[in-house]
Design brief:
This protein has 384 residues and is an alpha+beta fold. 30% of the residues lie in helices and 21% in strands.
Length: 384
Amino acid sequence: MKTPAKLIFENGANWRYATGTPISDPALWYMEPNGTTHILVSELEIALMQTTATGVTHIHGFAEVRDSLHPKPLTLSAMVAWLHRATPEAPLLVPADFPAATFQRLTAEGLPLEVCTDDLFFPERAIKTLAETEKLAEAERAATQCFHRAAHILREADIARDASLVWKGKPLTAETVQMEMRKIAIEQGCEEFHGGPIVACGAQGAMPHERGHGILKAHELIVIDNFPRHKNGYWADCTRTFVKGKTTQWQQDVYAAVLTAQEAALALIRQGANGRDIHKAVETTLHRAGFPTGSMDDGTPYGFFHGTGHGVGLELHEPGPRMISRADCELKSGYVTSVEPGLYYPPGSHKGGTGGCRIEDLVVVTDTGHHNLTLYPKNKWMID
């Protein structure tokens, strides 16, 4: 079987991994079967790519390709012409998210495209290098500063008679905390937020991906999940849960159970461990603490109903190994995974109370255990 060539046409995570640099518009990256790499970019990008792209053997501009053809074609036709000249008869492998219209056009032109069936087009992306780990740590340090800001605001906030929070003379809303956290993230070098951070109070926190909205309340669990992307290209991911004011025994029990479950997971993480077994240990810990998982009559889930951890890197939810979930996954040194057990109880689902609690760290798997990239403490969740 002939060794395939590889092709991407995008401006996303695969491009950044292959070239070491971002690009504004989708462009072509091509690797010959012998490993020689080419990028084909527009006039708007070529000078930047010549300055910033790494690990690329040849950089071409669409202009030079068009100028070599008569009549001068449009960009897509120029790309087709270039590929016809460059591509051997070996298969031309493209990722599963390759643009459908471009795929149809290239195959119609006789190019031997095949879709990669692996979860990762670049399997080596799953094992983070030391340089990548430091970039993730840099992003996580920025996220930590955001949490310091959020906690400071909660400490400064006053509690009104109706238990609503007031900050600087105005009602304190989820949107206000989100904006203040984004400001810190930008100051720390982050440039994307994926709709976050999540600041979800009370019943909103029982829905794990509810972004949060409206006035925050005292004496209720507030889930804050922060996941900015640093300008270095790598994402942070960290969650903490707070209560401003008095805590109930139920809230204390929920927090203790989630923290104990996370500690159990962290103790098991190391090269060779199976993520499925770690996830099972988390489920068992939460169940034994008296917090069941199930569904309400209308189908709304409660308890712990998501995976314990997912890969993080150039994407917030990295494709590839399922890390820590119900799926079979042998952990390898260099994997980076979140560790985020949680409990979620919508109104009426648990006799003890309502709300959500999640605690999330980002860790690197090592030969003997793990290295935790998350710096924000877990013992300062109760704020007077």
